[in-house]
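Here is an idea for our session: we take a single protein and study its fold together. Which protein we use is up to you, so please pick one and set it down. Once you have written the record down, we can walk along the chain together:
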Amino acid sequence: MALLEAVGLKKGFLTGAGVRLEVLKGVSLIVHPGEIVAIMGASGTGKSTLLYLLGGLDRPDQGRIFYDGADFLAQNDGGLSRFRNRSIGFVFQFHHLLPEFSALENVIMPALISRAPRDAAQQRARALMEQMGLAGRMDHRPSELSGGEQQRVAVARALMNKPALILADEPSGSLDTRSAESLHQEIIRLSRVHHQAFVIATHNPKLSQLCDRVLYLEAGQLHQRNAAASLR
């Protein structure tokens, strides 16, 4: 059974000149549990827009999205917010860490929002940071971390509530080559160990080659040109 299924997603926006720009023109996608899917395409083709729809951060103009067989967009905004917190993790290109909190506090935040017991949440957050090689950086604030370390904190935060699906938007786009390759390997390892699905919007061919499938977003449609190498 598919973990995530999007059917006929359409999304458009009004430009500053009042002209409507159709970004997604009937996108359909199936993601299976534990699968890593890369979405590639030129800048401005709608990769981020698609991820926002898949994660319930925005609603399509047309189309439906099913998670474990249920149409999660049928919920009201409050229900959708609770669903996102529980079931989907997000990794953004520019981290979006809260600067006034420590790395550990940033990681633990999704669990606190879902009202998980603080002691258990703190224990899991510490374990995640250790897995990400951040054992010695837990009490540091984001400004005291390197770009690669900040992104690893963001990945740990996305994993905090044990979501079956993680959506990542150019997760290594702001990193140097060495930090990016290290993060890529960590994403693959996490997916295999925890059987979590990743949908990753990326321009990075090295990252896409590590994924199970590579899809291309062109002219508002998704296309699969060929299968990516799977490094299981």
Observations:
- Residues 177-194 form the longest helix (18 residues).
- Strands lie at 4-14, 20-31, 36-40, 62-67, 70-71, 88-91, 165-169, 197-201, 213-218, 221-223.
- The radius of gyration is 17 Å.
